[in-house]
Specification:
21 helices, mainly alpha, 488 residues
């Protein structure tokens, strides 16, 4: 969230003259000087509370709805719907979500820009909440698979839409803290969904429904209620924000726009042209960011979907303990991601933090997969969960800091989260029932993906170094904007 003591960026490591020049120009802009420092902090704080918190709580519901299959599984869903190793039904039901989730993301980021965040996000949240309620009444795993496809299509627009919306509101070196808080609130779903699910399981037998069905029904109802409430709270893009209910006036919105213009000069939106939009696919770093997110979500989705099962079947914990022991690793990840976000913004660093987290992930996965002591393996769960989840907001910011232009930002948000969807496909398919209880092939796939994160960041860092060096020498501008330089 916004720091209450200062809203002026400090130069990063090495005395970044680009940032210093931007700060000086910003300080002399009449749209900024119209407000006292205290008033400026107040505006930023209001944006944080209205934008980041609203999107964060909706993301929490999104993650809860997307990943509650693991909780339902240990509550009896697999047995009642005849899911087993022979038909591989649990993997299929987990997997089919990600196909439409990946496919519909590029058009969804266009729609949020054209329709507006409030109408678009509210509609898809309420609709997928209704689908979640339907999960509680299915009679076969095949019907559940169909509903998962619909859920994937509806959720496809939410996460990239939120990432895109957040990136339009903040200067580059204030963004990771906001991404971290947004993702932190969402990850609380993973932390406490198991505990909530265990409580909802106690409704077993009420109205003739099994406990696992109540998990979907109650959580779907909560989703619909929050979706309707969000229609009031969600705000528009900065330049259109005076239209939002009880939010910024025109002078305050101009202050926010000035901060973005001095940081990267990309507030203005050109008319949408399909050819120009798709042309952004020719930029190699767009796909490098997507690959990084794919490698990371291979781990995060595998943990979200299979951790309760591994705790119960692989480590021998009871159903109650398996549901509740999911929470502590996610709480630890939340602490780490906030600390890293603070220093990442302060030092203007992204890549080294991502590499550090991936290295932690390698150690954690090694302990989880290849040690025999349950205590050591559970410590490995902590490290693996911290690595995968702390890297998500770091990667969102790494991508946002190194691109310019509204439509490129929309396209790259879609490809990044689309890569995450592919990671979800990998993460849910490599943990096969026949490999239980150790799931060694799945652990190995996650280990390889973390190693590839480190290799990819190293390649991007070299590319960025050469490009920045070219700009310093007076060569071709980066992202078609003189003075713009890549963030490592």
């Amino acid at each position: 969230m916004a720091e209450r003591t200062s809203d002026v960026e400090k130069p990063g490591l090495g005395g970044d003259t680009q940032v210093e020049d931007a700060v000086l120009a910003l300080a002399n802009d009449e749209r900024v000087t119209a407000f006292t420092p205290a008033e400026q902090r107040s505006i930023i704080w209001r944006v944080d509370c209205r934008l980041v918190l609203t999107l964060g709580f909706l993301y929490m519901i999104s993650l809860m709805d997307r990943t509650n299959l693991g909780a339902a599984s240990v509550a009896g869903m697999q047995k009642e719907l005849h899911m087993n190793a022979k038909n591989n039904a649990y993997t299929i039901v987990s997997l089919v979500f990600f196909l439409p989730y990946a496919l519909f993301q590029p058009p969804a980021t266009v729609l949020i820009r054209e329709i507006g965040p409030r109408k678009f996000l509210t509609a898809i949240v309420v609709l997928w909440g209704a689908v979640m309620i339907g999960f509680g009444f299915v009679k076969s795993w095949q019907t559940m698979a169909v509903l998962r496809v619909i859920l994937g299509g509806l959720e496809a627009g939410f996460y990239p839409g939120c990432v895109y919306l957040l990136s339009t509101w903040y200067p580059r070196f204030e963004l990771q803290k906001r991404n971290a808080v947004f993702y932190l609130i969402g990850s609380m779903a993973s932390a406490f969904a198991g505990i909530l699910a265990y409580g909802l399981m106690q409704l077993n037998g009420h109205a003739g429904l099994s406990g696992w069905r109540w998990i979907f029904i109650i959580e779907g109802t909560i989703t619909c209620a929050l979706g309707l409430a969000a229609y009031i709270a969600i705000v528009d893009f900065p330049e259109l924000s005076p239209k939002s209910w009880h939010f910024l006036n025109h002078r305050e919105a101009a202050f926010v726009v000035a901060r973005i213009e001095h940081d990267r000069a990309d507030v203005k939106t050109e008319p949408f042209v399909l050819g120009a939009y798709l042309k952004h696919a020719l930029d190699s770093k767009v796909w490098a960011f997507a690959a990084l997110y794919m490698f990371t979500t291979t781990n995060s989705y595998a943990i979200a979907y299979f951790l309760p099962i591994i705790l119960r079947d692989g480590m021998g914990f009871s159903v109650a303990k398996a549901q509740c022991l999911v929470a502590p690793p996610y709480c630890a990840a939340a602490v780490v991601m906030v600390i890293q976000a603070y220093y990442g913004d302060k030092w203007h660093l992204r890549g080294p933090i991502i590499v550090f987290n991936a290295a932690i992930g390698v150690v954690g996965l090694g302990l989880l997969g290849y040690d025999k002591n349950s205590g050591v393996r559970y410590f490995g769960v902590f490290l693996a969960t911290i690595a995968a989840n702390a890297n998500c907001p770091a990667l969102l910011t790494y991508q946002s800091n190194n691109i310019r232009g509204q439509w490129k930002r929309a396209f790259t948000s879609a490809t990044l989260i689309g890569g995450g969807a592919i990671g979800g496909i990998i993460g849910t398919s490599v943990f096969r029932p026949i490999d239980a209880p150790g799931y060694r092939p799945g652990i190995l796939a996650c280990l390889i993906s973390q190693a590839l994160v480190m290799v990819t960041v190293a390649g991007l860092s070299w590319k960025f170094h050469l490009a920045n060096k070219r700009v310093d020498a007076g060569g071709k501008p980066i992202e078609h904007h003189p003075g713009f330089k890549y963030t490592f």
